[in-house]
Predict the structure.
Amino acid sequence: MPSARRVKWARLRAIAVAVSACAILGTLVWLLIGGSLLSERTALFLFIPDATGLAPGSPIRVDGISVGKVASVALSGSSEPERVVKVVLSVDLAHLSEIPMDSFAQINADNMVGDQFVDITSGKSAQHIRPGGAIAYQAQPELLKSLDLSQFESQLRDLDAVLSDIEAGRGLVGQFVMGEDLYDGLMRQVTELRSGVRAAASTATPAGQALYTDSLYRDIVGTLADFDKTLARLQSGQDPSARFFRDPAAYDSFREEAAGLRRSIAGWHESEFFASDRLYADWNGRISSLIRAVDEFNAGPALSSSQLYDDLNSASKQLGDTLRSFARDPQKFLRFKVF
């Protein structure tokens, strides 16, 4: 039967796991809804002639920044062609100050087949729109009216030049499409890569032996077996080093040696060398005296002038001449007188 401490610990772990799971779930829900669960929202209105592709939940962007979603799309009941559909916009109240009064909205799409979204272009007015206000709608310009024919013609010329280069085999794309050199070079590289992979995977290489043989497995198993045998010898007391683990005497001896070393270090700290600076001052005085003696010797006549060097040099020359004369004629210096 488990103890009360284990039961309490198991309950604590279960509570911690449950709290962590709830926190993760709450974070996921907050991220899935865009992080705006607790943000206060307000309603704005937009009247458009056609709501094709626009549905509840479509995003609302102000100058490219998402500020809310479409709440509902319904007929307005108006006979005016530009106010046939009424769109209720749910906008974050914190972003309402970023929409000036003279802002206008358009219905755009991210791409040719993408879902529609409400694109609000901010104006320059100093006053921002109020909650429950209406945003002016501005229709998208027609393609032919907004198309620059001269720019379109220039783009067609550039495209024709690119296609001509490809047909003539100029450039990497042209060589790849019209010629075979680039393809052959690419195939040679692929073949070399395949040969390299096969050579690396061969059983004659270490990588191939690790992949296709059990040599690495046997080495690992052997190492683990030796380690297990070593642990078994230590546990059974057969190994000489097992005495340190099984007999506390070695451990106690080691502790006594460590305590003695600690006492020795404490004694060094309490000695005169570490406790006062008298010995340091004595050494410093002796070194200063030695430095002064060296300075006085350097300032003496032996080193300050060349007289002593000249005298010694002259004496050495005379001694050398005397020795050479003695070597040439020893009898000149060896005179014996009996009486």
Notes: DSSP finds 13 helices and seven strands in the chain.
